Amino acid sequence: MTRRPDELAVEVDGLRLAFEEEEEPVLNGLTFEVKKGEAVLVMGPSGSGKSTLAFCLNGIYPHAAEALLDGRVRILGQDVREAQPGELARKAGVVFQDFDSQFCMGKVEDELAFCLENLSVPPEQMDARMDKALAQVGLQAHRRSAIRELSGGQKQKLALACILAMRPELLILDEPVSNLDPFAAESFRSLVRELHARGAFTLLVVDHQPDGWAGWMSRLLVMEPGGTLAYDGDPRGYAELRLAAADKEANGSVPARQSGAAAEIGGEEAARVERPERGALPDAVRTPAPLAAIRTSAPSPPAAAVALPLAAETAAHLAARGLLAPGRPLPLTGEELVRAIVPGCLPAALEAVRGLCAQRSRRQPAGEPVLRLEQGVLRRGRRVILDGVNAAVRRGELLAVAGPNGAGKSTLAGVLGGLLRPDGGRLLLEGRPLARWSEREVRRRIGVVFQNPEHQFVAESVEAELAYSRNRRGVPAAQTAREVDAMLEAFRLAGRRAESPYRLSQGQKRRLSVASMLMDEQSILLCDEPTFGQDRHGTEQLMALLNERVRQGLSVVLITHDMELIHRYADRVLVLVEGSVVFDGPPPSLWDETDGFLASAHLVRPGLFSLIRLLEAAMRENGQEPGGGARPDEQLREVAAWTCAN
Amino acid sequence: MDLRELNPAVKGLAVILCVLLLSFALNPVTPLLTLAATVIVTWSFGRVSWGRWLLLFAPFLLAACSYMAATVLFPRESMAPSPVLLQLGGFEVTRAAAELAASLGLRVLAFSALSLLFILTTDPTRLMLSLMQQCRMPPKLAYGILAGYQFLPLMQEEFRILRTAQRVRDGGFRRSRNPLLQLHRTAIPLLAGAIRKAERVSAAMVSKGFTDSPYRTFYKRVRVTAADWLFLALMVGIVLLSYLAAWRLGYTRLYNGEL
Description:
The complex is a heterodimer. By secondary structure, chain A is of the alpha/beta class. Chain A has two domains: 8-229, P-loop containing nucleotide triphosphate hydrolases (Rossmann fold, 3-Layer(aba) Sandwich), CATH 3.40.50; 369-604, Rossmann fold, CATH 3.40.50. In chain B, β1 (84-88) and β2 form a beta hairpin. Chain B has helices at 8-22, 29-45, 50-73, 95-120, 124-135, 139-170, 179-207, 226-248; strands at 84-88, 91-94. Chain B has two domains: 3-124 and 222-248, no CATH class; 139-207, no CATH class.
């Protein structure tokens, strides 16, 4: 595979990178090339060095971290080690994940000017370049705005505009949508797609989920723990390999199991089978034969599975039922999937996909309300943050709160948790106004989990962190010790009990912050975006634990942007827009709302429900009526009606 | 003239010159006149709201008053004998002590008014641009300071959340009275967060092509115009005229380290 060097944007040969002499390398023997104009998706579990690789490719490493780099990395014909820091960045720009720490200026215009000044662009050309870059991302109207007034999605678009204004030859996006709400994420992805189609740059996207990318990107790199490359090639090829491996395993060892797609989308139990702790993966998944051949280093840790496009997984499910036309390439997007269905089998396919949605195991209907806010009003200065909000949290239910940024979700959590006093309306805890409870009693009943777990840490060790509240209440030490042990076990932290909370991994920190909030047998847990900054594995573990507690009667209020989580775990969802409740009901009825309603609330249907919509639209095109059949949503509505009546 | 439109570097220079000149005065008249003139300049050319100015000035006023009271009531023994102006219980207030107190107190107030004039009418971004363009401040330092400045509101918000989170953890029990423990609990998460943010911002700046090269073009030029020199002359003139007025009234003593 030799090409003329001027056709290559990236040449990586035997790249090995470590931060300390004696430590394990973060990247270990990577070799790949990227042609100019290619669009490459880089996936891999956290800790596999995806972001480190992105930093290497724009020349921040090895300089910034004084990292030890072996092998060769050439970007646009220039060796990273020979370039000055910042020099390569002029040709290779990066958009990072955290939209709040990417800017050094106060105003949109000044930030763009900063980038152009770095390139020593003559001042008289700057206006035109700024206007063009802002127009490319659709922020023309905000040229003179303050950056802090922009929404998260707008900030990411501004970060992109900054790089575009510099006319990069290589554009690197490092998990650009992980912190955005689904609506903003979708808008960002389609913007990037459009820009790449028109622009003349090479694109490299690091993300942990392929939907919205894999369908149009030409190449996929899969990294695995230890910083090696597990796959390099066509995104479709990877999905095919993975599905073939899962199929083989299903037929070989666990005959009763359903296809991979079903397990992926299904209930929690299925999810646990699909994503066990690393090392527990069955051999077949671990090393599909063709993958082993591509491996760059021989005996390596098991490849933790990265997510496959939903359409591919659903296709596998439909193929198993003979609903897919043979000989067609594996679909990676919903549109491709619809086209791949055997003509005339659309109704059957629709039924099958609806079946997947209904697989979620239903809980018992929730009990009586334990916490109820009636006509809650909260003002900040002249602004009304909450405008007559009614919300009830019932025993043993998981209530999701969704809505655009700035709609008042966190404020609502603050009011429900008794941390903010509402200006109007009343809050009843177990039927009694909150003012009649003492602070101690309130805290023993309501736990609050904040976005950043570190904010809640008060003790020197994991154990002490858990024992903290009980010690303060004067519970006998022996009893506390027993309960701490049980909690450590339940939250899988036993191995790190003596560690400082700050030294835990992101997932462990999150689990510890939740566990410490449940030590007083709290009956209500308010979680403000607990999956923020967590990878998929961490999210799954956390949700499985919460779900278990909800079954035992805990009430959970979950503020989240993640529609898949709402679909899979929430019993009810409350949608806030501009301080008012615009929807309160079970998730399936939310997905049945019109596109316009969902867009106004910045929501996006979970992948499967979007597929259902596509299938229904295709049927109508064929003159068939998609209705009929036992819709799973109907049963759920009954449950919901029952709950609401009580 | 609009103080906000002036070149920040020259404005800063004017304020520094005034402070230096004032520090030689040891009479109540010079600082009093300068103070009055500075307030007039701030309010007529600064578009500064009265309320905000008074709010920021109040702490200095309080400090100056208590300082003056202390100097008047407990004068240095070495002070030359002078007529007693006032008898307050067991305390005698001499003319010399009162003058010394007024001189020192008013000087503090004049310094504060001059600083407020600068702070309330200067945009930080323009200040840094001006320091880079007129005073050859290295861009690395200037943009570093600007990036830090953008952090302040975020840190404030983070601190607020942190306090709430710890209130929840304390579960309605009193916080520990050990101040070291308190500091540890607040400072560590704030610092950890700040360091991580700073690292990210610096990576983002480098990836936008920022190098430590001192050569760069500027989109916005902060220029020095005649108005800037006029302002400088006006401010220095105010101080010199105040000295003249004091001299005419018979005050010739200069500051010599008195407290």
